[in-house]
Amino acid sequence: MTAISSGATTYIAQSVSLFDGFDGFVLPLVLKIAFVLQLFFVVPLVGGYLEHKAMGRMQHRRGPVEAGPFGVLQLVADGIKFIQKEDVIPRAADRWVFAAAPGVAMVPALLVFLVIPLGPGVFALDLELGLFYALAITSVSVLGVLMGGWASANKFSLIGGLRAGAQLIAYELPLILAAITVAVQAGTLSLVGIVEAQAGFMIPGTGINVWFVFPQIVGFGIFFISAMAELSRPPFDMPIGDSELVFGYMTEYTGIKYAMYMLTEYAGMITMSALMVVLYLGGWQLLPGVPMPGCEGAGGLFDCSPIGIALSVLVTLGKIMALVFVMVWARVAYPRLREDQLQRMSWLVLVPLSLLNLAVITVFKVVF
Amino acid sequence: MAATSPPGTGLLKGLGVTIKHLFQRPATLMYPYERNELAPRTRGVIALMDENCTVCMLCSRECPDWCIYIESHKETVPPAKEGGRARTRNVLDRFAIDFSLCMYCGICVEVCPFDALWWSPEFEYSEYSIDSLLHEKEKLRAWADTVPAPPPLDDGAVLPAEVADAIEKAEKERELAEAKAAEEAQAKESGAAGGAATPAAAAKEPEVEVKAGEIDQETFDQLIAEGKSERIARSKAKAAWVKKEKARLKAEAEQGGGDAAAPAAAPKPAEVHVEAGQIDQETYDQLIAEGKTERMARAKAKAAYVKKEKARLRAEAEQAAPSGESAAPEAEAPAKKQLSEVHVEGTGEIDQEVFDQLIAEGKSERIARSKAKAAWIKKRKQEQLDQEGGA
Ligand code: SF4
Ligand code: SF4
Would A16 be classed as within a structural domain? Predict the structure, then answer.
């Protein structure tokens, strides 16, 4: 337990992972790795399945139905298919860069899961700079995209890669500014600390507990839009815009390498949603001000019985899936923006707005 | 963004539309498990009824892709009659369609003069190899069994020629039977009342009216002389004959109206049956008032008319039956009606005596009625024979 003090308030953050409860060095390590890997490989598949189904239904289709009951194994089947495919590398391509690029894109997406808290103690690591770490490491993914675009020796890939680079730079800024605003309000960069801070945040002058989405609705909107743009999700999918660029930086990729890029995208959806849940939506809290059943600790968030832990994880996953659903919803509803509209929206709307948001929240933080 | 609505309304509306569709039924048909109704004239595959094929080669020559392969040999058929000439006939050896070339234009089906080629709705014959799409006559014949019956004709469509011919033939036969019955009645009548010869002629009239098969020789000759084709001449001559015949009948009826009430009355009941085109005005008006479409009202009114008319006739016949069964001298009109009944309600009449007896024996009404009907018909026939024998 560490106490992080910030001004007048003191938050008790439980920075000890459940997995540290086991003896020795190797066992907790193995368990943590296993935890992160299963998060990385299972939850994105669930998100992907949700996307397939929701998108299908919104388009009057049924989505996957054949693989497994209700098609739940569709993405697994896709994965198996990708593995079987021939691994084609264009002759003119820069072989090593081309081969390494998907990995460079995927590993950061995997590493973010280290700090994502799913429930009390259900995380691999609670870094004091957790938020900083998460945002920093997701930005590395763009390197993999740029490498892939460049190494493909193909003008569509190159343009796609460049667009991706420009887009990530443009939207990194509002994303980070919005996240910083939350950190300012919470007084900590630890993701677990932020969850706890939300449980203790009252509307000034009253005893009503609300999540940070309430005072920071603008910030939440900015974060959401920027996250979608960061992930190149439609309607911000100019880097792979298939009507303009064939498939952007992924044009030349097949088989398992292509699957790695796809997995990166789905994992990104999960991590971004998880960050939003932690930053704005109260983490594993069921409702504002409602202690989780089976939890005795501060604000009903910690010291949980196994049932309480399981419930917390379910609540977090539920919120993540709800956000993924909203992303899919926006994808189905909106057409792709134009490249210049995308840049304008970031630099002329989102960046000033997030700066303003930061200023206002900081002032309020100091005043109250 | 529209100046009137606050910014973002359109975005929300877009989300609203998509979420609404999320809860609607998917339009997907789970194909291999579910199948939809194919359109009645679905063009799935070309089927061959090789029994009908005369190896005329028209299909193969007309096919734009030249993907129909036909092989045949000639056979000599012995003469049908003693001393006739032996004939040669083409026998189909091979008939194959290459469906990897076929573009499903349907020209072959259209062009076959012997109804040997058909469209079958069968469409699941994809193959892994392109040469397996060349299908031989056995396979094409098997598909012929999947050809559905043609859809029914629309209301008011012109009947196909063969059906129309068959109906005309049946009608003719019926008219002949009717005429015979009428003659018999006349003979009976004249035997009983020593009456006039005119009714016999009058009874023939309804027959004249319906039998459209005859032609007006004069017109025909004239048209042929004018250089018209035989077909045209024949059809015009037919029309001319019908016209003339009608005019003649009308004239006769008007002329004979005074002295021969019977002839004038006789065609009427016959018409009741023949002219199914009439409608029941009352029913029609009522249906129209109810807001039904004209077409429907007309059809229903027609049916109502036929029904009413039949009921009326039956009532009349029943009324007349007890007294007029054995052709009493004074029962001229009832007898006529009855005679017309011979064809209107060919089996509608019953032998009252038999009926009563059977009922008395405890038979059910249905059985009694049917037996009595049979008895009545038998009697009629017997009478007819007697009459003929007498004449
Ligand atoms: S449908 Fe057309 S292309 Fe096909 S076999 Fe018949 S005529 Fe030839
Ligand atoms: S047109 Fe008809 S009858 Fe003539 S060869 Fe073809 S299938 Fe046979």
Answer: no
